[in-house]
Amino acid sequence: MCTIGGVLIFGDRLDRDRAKRIEEVLRMIVVKGEERGRDSFGIVALDKNGELNVFKSRDRPSIAVSRMPSIINENTVAAIFNNRAEPTTEYVRAKTEDDIQPMIGEHVVVAHNGTIANDKDLETKFNLTRRSRIDTAILPPLLERLWDGSLNGLRDVLINHVIGSYALAIMDTRRPGKVWLATNFKPLYMAWYSDLKALFFASLDDYLVNDQGRPIWDMPTIRRVEPYTAMEIGIDGTWSTVSLRREEQGRRRRVLVIASGGLDSTTAATYLLKQGYDVALLHFNYGHRAETQEDRAIRRIAEFLGVPLLEVSMDFFKVVRHSPLLGDGEINRVDEGREGAEFAHEWVPARNFVFIALATAIAEAYGYDYIATGINLEEAGAYPDNEMEFIRLLNKVMPYAVGPNKHVELLMPVGHLVKHEIVKLGLEVGAPLHLTWSCYDNGERHCGRCGPCYMRRWAFRINGVRDPVEYDLPVEVEEEFWRDARPYKIPKRPSK
């Protein structure tokens, strides 16, 4: 929609040179942010006495800012701006200054990126007077009517009364040493320029720095304002944040576990069950070699744990192919599976990415708060989509993958563990490891020679416990391998 941005200026004394340099950065942000809004430009600066310095133009921002007189002076403590992308529903043919953001009330100034869907309802409900028909114009009078100036007060107004999308920058002439930033799913970033003692903010991080090729020690510190967060920042160094998510007290945390029927996801599901989560299993049949055995295993595991199971057929992986697991090529069995354990010979293109995408849709539709996977540190050595960073970065985009006010988060209960640690945890939490299937093949017994079999056998041996599943290996090999291992003890079923 729009670019919003601005600056909060710290320090007791703002000399002319620093004011000039701060304004240069601010102008750079405005020009770079033009890609998100070209229909008008406005900026409001606030000084330490609560006075406003306003410049608004119907020109595109790059032209407007070239004609703008100096906006930052020795008394300025903050400024906010807006590059407007005018939505179809808010089109105004003949704009006045009141139609150009930031919107100015009696004492509250707001720059807004997004759409306020219930502006007319708010106007009627609270008998508000606004200076423009544009939706953002409802925010200053709404805040002046309902907001007590506190961060929690801002949270209450946004959660209880505002419907729509927003990233907000707010100033109050009664409190000139602060700015408030708030966002649901619209992007907002901050950059601290230590040499200028100034905190800049804008809709995208790229707008906040001039040259990404500069040495890191010459770069500002950039941080995202996390989605569904409100912040209050003061030039006295105060810094507070609150969540803008509705908390449902007393409701159990619901988690959808992407489960293959193997060690990792089974241990993850059992661990989460023990932690008090409301667990359901999600299993994908995607035409892979071990589909029959995995399907049998996951049903037994779900029955043992006493949790729901959702199975999804993904026939479209027949189009993907290009993997031994999908019938293209042979399973690697070199060095009893060691080589297959150390390199992704059996990589299925984007499999985990696709699984997580579909799981996200299901979780949102059916009210699950979390999606858990069995990704782990061991397999991250060969498979990029088992790296913890994969899940961590996906969590960064999850607020943009689900609907407004929805919350789905990815969990990786065994993401930090290698295979023998997963087996150890599985034994500790009573996971039904005896029901799991790890082999790439679809035989009656584990082959004992593919990568997963190699890791599984050694993981149990390191724990001094004999693997409860059978391997298609010579009896003498098995007896020698497990000679010093104690028997596996079948765990009790979890109590309801």
UniProtKB/TrEMBL annotation:
Its EC number is 6.3.4.20. InterPro entries: GATase_2_dom (IPR017932), Ntn_hydrolases_N (IPR029055), QueC (IPR018317), Rossmann-like_a/b/a_fold (IPR014729). It comes from Vulcanisaeta distributa (strain DSM 14429 / JCM 11212 / NBRC 100878 / IC-017). It catalyses: 7-carboxy-7-carbaguanine + NH4(+) + 2 ATP = 7-cyano-7-carbaguanine + 2 AMP + 2 diphosphate + 2 H(+). The lineage of its organism: Archaea, Thermoproteota, Thermoprotei, Thermoproteales, Thermoproteaceae. It comes from the Archaea. Pfam families: GATase_7, QueC. Pathway: Purine metabolism; 7-cyano-7-deazaguanine biosynthesis. Residues 2-236 form the Glutamine amidotransferase type-2 domain. Binds 1 zinc ion per subunit. Catalyzes the ATP-dependent conversion of 7-carboxy-7-deazaguanine (CDG) to 7-cyano-7-deazaguanine (preQ(0)). The gene is queC. Belongs to the QueC family. Its cofactor is Zn(2+). This is 7-cyano-7-deazaguanine synthase. Keywords: ATP-binding, Ligase, Metal-binding, Nucleotide-binding, Zinc. ATP binds at A259, S260, G261, G262, L263, D264, S265, T266, T267, A268, A269. GO terms for molecular function: ATP binding; ligase activity, forming carbon-nitrogen bonds; zinc ion binding. Zn(2+) binds at C439, C447, C450, C453.
